[in-house]
Automatic annotation (TrEMBL):
Domain named 3-dehydroquinate synthase C-terminal: residues: 209-339
InterPro entries assigned to the protein according to its UniProt record, in alphabetical order: Dehydroquinate_synthase, DHQS/DOIS_N, DHQS_C
Molecular function GO terms recorded: 3-dehydroquinate synthase activity
UniProt KW NAD keyword: yes
Cofactors (names): NAD(+)
Protein name in the entry: 3-dehydroquinate synthase
Transmembrane segments: none
Lineage: superkingdom: Bacteria
Lineage, top ranks: Bacteria, Pseudomonadati, Pseudomonadota, Alphaproteobacteria, Rhodobacterales
One example of a Gene Ontology biological process annotation: aromatic amino acid family biosynthetic process
Enzyme Commission number: 4.2.3.4
CDD domains in the record: DHQS-like (cd08198)
Length: 399
């Protein structure tokens, strides 16, 4: 810690301003594995006990109700029985709704907080969430705001949460219809990406998550983008080797941006990892989340890719490559809700720019493309070009 004093002259006294500065190192492991609760797999225990080996660790599980059931409960209990004396399971796993339902109502967060209080879960115990990104968000918020922060372990179970949101530092739920309005920045204790959970996903959910890999490749890694194009058939059919590499590489790129982008807690106005998201967030809300997040991101990517061409940033034809990749993955690049208008006849999607700026808390900063693998920030968007980009997308998908 360094203490600096600044003296400033005043008419009747000398003012002293003290600047306190300190830094807190953050680090957490992100593991990729299969069968996390196999009794012979010690990785879960190693992550829990990585700083304190000689004690019994208390663990409380919160599980997405779409995954919960006797089979998962039995696997968890068997694992804790094998590690008896090192791990203690607090009660039966608690279940919460999955998807946007768990983020719509703060009552779900309060239920988790109430359970944390009831079971006397302290700052050296563990709250472990198993589920998709929405469940991780809600449980992470409950953990971050109980006792000013509990040890939180994430077990993401969707492509989108394993390759993007689950490895990050944010927790949030919606409030009064505004996405991620109530939240915190709170790094997890550990993240365990078990690929076996992906095999249980519906096809729609499994494909939707790939959009976040396309996004991060487009703004940060041209070689990864080329790899996505070359392996699109394997990705669309969930070939294990391709899917696992896609998840790992996408997670690595997201983690690198958080650690080395200069703004891990988003104090500024730039959000490069939100490429394609200004319209995606609005489209989700406009469809009452019938369009999944990953699906909306795919549409947002296509929209901003075409806009980048119209704005003279991206070479003509690169937008076509991007759209073809998304379509070959099985993702749509158009939805009729994009044509919705408000009472004044204005395209509703354009209000997403205003809401996105409010979310940023500063000047409008939108990431566009100046090449495949190269993001470019702009501070204004031309509504006419947005409309032209939408017309281009609609022409490709008239139905």
């Amino acid at each position: 810690m360094r203490l600096k004093t600044i003296d400033t002259a005043a008419p009747d006294q000398m003012n002293k301003v003290h600047w306190q500065r300190f830094s807190v190192p953050y680090e957490y492991p992100v593991a990729f594995l299969r069968d996390v609760f196999d009794p012979g797999n010690s990785l879960f225990y190693q992550m829990v006990a990585r700083e304190e080996r000689d004690k019994n660790h208390r663990c409380f599980f919160v599980v997405d109700e779409g995954l919960a059931g006797p089979e998962l409960d039995a696997r968890i209990r068997r694992y804790f029985d094998v590690h008896q004396g090192k791990l203690t399971l607090i009660d039966q796993p608690m279940t919460v709704p999955g998807g946007e339902i768990v983020k719509k109502d703060l009552a779900h967060v309060e239920r988790v907080q109430s359970a944390i209080h009831t079971h006397a879960i302290d700052r050296h115990s563990y709250v472990i969430a198993i589920g998709g990104g929405a469940v991780l968000d809600a449980v992470g918020l409950a953990a971050a705001t109980s006792h000013r922060g509990l040890r939180h372990i994430r077990l993401p179970t969707t492509v989108l949460s394993q390759n993007d949101s689950g490895v990050g530092v944010k927790n949030a739920v919606n409030f009064k219809g505004v996405k991620n309005y109530v939240g915190t920045f709170a790094p997890p204790w550990a993240v365990l990406n078990d690929f076996d959970f992906l095999d249980r996903l519906p096809v729609r959910e499994r494909i939707a998550g790939v959009s976040e890999a396309v996004k991060v490749a487009l703004i940060r890694d041209p070689e990864f983008y080329d790899w996505l194009e070359k392996n699109v058939d394997d990705l669309a059919t969930f070939a294990p080797q391709a899917e696992e590499y896609m998840v790992r590489r996408s997670a690595e790129l997201h983690m690198h941006q958080i650690a080395h982008g200069g703004d891990p807690f988003e104090m500024g106005s730039a959000r490069p990892l939100d490429f394609g998201h200004w319209s995606a967030h609005k489209l989700e809300a406009m469809t009452n989340h019938h369009v999944r997040h990953g699906e909306a991101v795919a549409i947002g990517i296509a929209l901003d890719a075409r806009y980048s061409v119209l704005a003279g940033l991206l070479p003509e034809g690169d937008d076509e490559r991007i759209v073809v990749l998304l379509e070959n993955l099985g993702l749509r690049i158009w939805h009729p809700a994009l044509e919705s208008r408000d009472a004044d006849g204005r395209l509703s999607i354009l209000t997403g720019l205003q809401e996105f700026q409010e979310h940023l808390g500063g000047e409008l900063t939108i990431t566009l493309l100046k090449g495949l693998g190269h993001g470019h920030e702009v501070h204004e968007m031309d509504g006419d070009l947005v409309r032209q980009a939408m017309d281009w997308l609609k022409a490709r998908n008239p139905t």
